[in-house]
Amino acid sequence: MTDLLTFRPELIRDVNSSDAPVIAKSLSFAERVYRLGFVRKTLILAVLAVVWEIYGRWLGNPLLFPTFGETIQAFASNMANGVIPQRMLVSLQTLIIGYGIGVALAALLTTLAIGSRIGADLLETLTSMFNPLPAIALLPLALIWFGLGVGSVIFVLVHSVLWAIALNTHAGFRSVSNTLRMVGQNYGLRGLKLVRYILIPAAFPAILTGLKVGWAFAWRTLIAAELVFGVSSGSGGLGWFIYENRNQLETANVFAGLFTVILIGLFVENIIFATIERRTIRRWGMQH
Fold first, then answer.
1. 74 near 251, Cβ under 8 Å?
2. Which residue blocks in the chain are alpha helix, DSSP H?
3. Which of 138, 197, 198, 193 lies closest to 163, judged by CA?
């Protein structure tokens, strides 16, 4: 072995730098811009707006389908005279109340479910019964119980939010491994401290998903409920604004109301929930 090492010829090869593979390459300006998520989404929205404008012009019937430009003009006009902001405020106030009550009840049911077997059975039974039930089907019953006005809308909002959040939160808690629970117990965590420092962070992706689903259900239920209750009570938010302008054949205003609903949905999803997601589960390394 020693002789082999002693007499082994040395091999020296000249490396040409031009033939060496590129390990790190700087991105061009276009590639860096394309990597930004909001730029890609803005591009998609711009393409959809162009398609909308082209189809509206091709159809040539503003009463049936106004162009994107006419919709923006109606939206700007209703924003300037304060109609859409006032209706938007009414809708958001109702939504926050219903969504808050739904989240609180979901937290209560989930706490009972993770604390006892009978609580888990109660949550599973109630979820199986009421989760498939459309909120809009409860509108006649809400009308009898709470009469015309905000109370009926809040009732159907709570129903649309409660089961989605409770189901996802409970599933998230159940997915936490026993190893992680035992690690927390070894650190002396018990009861609410175990929930606060171990269960909630570990289950937060499922909890956040439930909050997103609950928000989407609540938003669409609110607009549908306002279309019904707004007609009866003569007041309402964006749903009533859409219905009112549909009766007056102001199709551009109808599209402006729908455009506002979409803008609020985009804001909540891409600003509020995206910020929560970035500062929690992505920061904790639970999502890429």
1. no
2. 2-7, 29-34, 37-59, 68-80, 83-115, 117-130, 139-146, 150-174, 178-186, 191-194, 200-233, 238-247, 251-267, 274-279
3. 138
Determine contact, residues 62/71, Cβ cutoff 8 Å. Answer: no
Token pair 């199709």: residue: 251
Q: Helix (H, G, I), strand (E, B), or coil: what is residue 137?
A: helix
The identity of residue 56, as a single letter, is G
DSSP H or E run through 49:
helix 37-59
Identity of the residue numbered 100: G
- In degrees, to the nearest 5, what angle opens at C-alpha 279 toward C-alphas 273 and 284? 120
Distance from chain centroid for Cα 72: 25
pLDDT, position 258: 92
Cα separation of 9 and 25, whole Å?
37
Consecutive 10-residue averages of pLDDT for the chain (288 residues): 59 66 71 80 90 91 89 92 89 91 92 85 88 83 82 88 90 87 84 82 89 90 80 69 87 91 90 87 72
What is the sign of the dihedral through the CA atoms of 137, 140, 145 and 151? positive
pTM to 2 decimal places: 0.78
